[in-house]
Amino acid sequence: MFTPWLVFMAHHIILSAFGTTTQSGRTYGVLDERISSRFKDCSVHWHYSSPSVRRSLDQNKAKQPSLRDVLHNLAGNSPYRIVVQPLHVMAGQEFHRVVREAKEANATAAIGMPLLCTPDDFHRVAGNLMPLIEENESKAILILGHGTTHPSWTTYPALEKILRTQAGNRVFVTGLEKYPGPEAMIDEIAASGFDRVFIIPLLMATGMHFQRDIVGTAPNSWKSRLKSKRIELSYHDRGLALLPGIAEIFCDHIRTALG
């Protein structure tokens, strides 16, 4: 994780995740291992982009550095290149928060793109999801991201279109909240004639949003809403980061940023 001292290596890579306070944080350890193994001559550092996550972790662990802190520490002591690689699914509000903070730090750093950026990224992610989809034949497949009011919400229908060319119209992709909203999507699934749904979280780690908003017992969770429509729910309980090809997409974005 974050190394507060200078390590003399060819380049520095800052992996910037939204962060989590749950046990799903172990997922980041897997990403760290997979990415570090591809860049053995680089020093890998970590940053959590969510201020609330950093504040929560500050209470239990060593102080969590801001991106400005990490960049200032590295830029002031190293002649080598710095890449900030956000570990976000799409270029939404959190991704742009990282970009703004990197610019405000006045440090020379390249920014890697999020997981879903180019058409090739979409097809590669779809390829990683297809084994899960194929294992759940005859069920509707509901792929749930975080949801956003940012224009990047269009990521969801774009991924849905690509997946439907491979798996048919039983694939539905949307966010946990915001457009088009849980009730509209659940009604669409029910109207399509499905009474069984397999959920795949489009989240890097299955933390609070998965545990509370998807499979939680509250009346407004997706589990409760599906049950109220007499739709049977099963789900994949691991984050995207643990799928075999996801880390390699981020590695390719890092290579592009390194130039």
Number of strands: 8
CATH architecture field of the largest domain? 3-Layer(aba) Sandwich
Strand content: 15-25%
Helix share bin: 40-55%
Structural class: alpha/beta
Architecture blueprint of SSEs:
Elements: E1 11-17, H1 26-38, E2 42-48, H2 51-58, H3 67-75, E3 81-86, H4 93-104, E4 110-111, H5 119-134, E5 140-145, H6 155-167, E6 171-175, H7 182-191, E7 196-201, H8 208-214, H9 222-228, E8 232-235, H10 246-258
Parallel strand pairs: 1-2, 1-3, 3-4, 5-6, 5-7, 7-8
Structure description:
The protein has 259 residues and is of the alpha/beta class. The protein folds into two domains: 11-115 and 243-258, Rossmann fold (3-Layer(aba) Sandwich), CATH 3.40.50.1400; 119-239, 3-Layer(aba) Sandwich (Rossmann fold), CATH 3.40.50. The chain is built from ten helices and eight strands. The strands form two sheets. Strands 2-1-3-4 form a four-stranded parallel β-sheet, sandwiched between helices. A four-stranded parallel β-sheet has the order 6-5-7-8, with helices on both faces. Helix 1 (26-38) links the parallel strand 1 and strand 2. Helix 5 crosses helix 6 (155-167). Residues 1-9 have low confidence and may be disordered.
How would you concisely characterize the structure shown here?
The protein has helices at 26-38, 51-58, 67-75, 93-104, 119-134, 155-167, 182-191, 208-214, 222-228, 246-258, and strands spanning 11-17, 42-48, 81-86, 110-111, 140-145, 171-175, 196-201, 232-235.
Features:
259 residues, alpha/beta, Rossmann fold, four-stranded parallel beta sheet, 10 helices, 17% strand, globular
